[in-house]
Write a structure and sequence with these properties.
single chain; three-stranded antiparallel sheet; 2 domains; mainly alpha; 174 residues; 53% helix
Length: 174
């Protein structure tokens, strides 16, 4: 049985993403400022203002990176791995029988199945399990996730299920 792993964002954290993006710009600014300071071998630059204490850019950069890591963890907590398998010939035939094409729909007749119901049923049948990025099980809420997906995201999952089911050439480890 061949399987494939797909990553899907089931919960998006726009605040965490926006703050991470802001911190990434700050990280770039600090990295550039540190690079402009030069090395210890170079002659130190004369300070422009005597009233400002020297900046500890290295510790500031470390703080920014720590905050970025916290936001990355929040964003990653919204990712679900969907592990799918290809269906056997019998399983696939049963799905086709359960979702016959509507005679009054030319698309259904051409495809050979009900285009409104077959796709989600196929995906649901192909899902082995769902987990977070740490490998811990996550409840399979495919109908909810499918409603939140764009058509392109849904199509990617559907295509992967169809490809695994229809793939004829087995892969053997070398």
């Amino acid at each position: 049985m061949r399987t494939q792993v797909l990553n899907h964002f089931h919960t998006f954290y726009p605040e965490a993403q926006a703050e991470h993006d802001r911190l990434a710009r700050e990280e770039q600014r600090l990295t550039l400022a540190i690079a402009r300071q030069g090395t210890d071998d170079e002659e130190p630059r004369k300070p422009r203002r005597m009233s400002l204490p020297p900046e500890d850019l290295e510790s500031e950069l470390a703080q920014v990176r720590a905050q970025m890591d916290a936001h990355k963890a929040t964003i990653a907590s919204g990712v679900v791995r969907i592990v799918i398998k290809g269906l056997t010939r019998g399983e696939f035939r049963r799905l086709l029988v359960e979702h016959p094409p509507r005679e009054d729909d030319p698309l259904d007749v051409r495809l050979g199945y009900n285009s409104d119901t077959f796709g989600d049923a196929l995906i649901q049948a192909c899902i082995l399990h769902t987990e977070n990025l740490d490998g811990e099980p996550v409840e399979n809420r495919w109908p909810d996730w499918a409603d939140d997906m764009t058509n392109g995201q849904w199509e990617e999952v559907f295509r992967a299920c169809m490809d695994l089911t229809n793939e004829g050439a087995p892969a053997f480890p070398r």
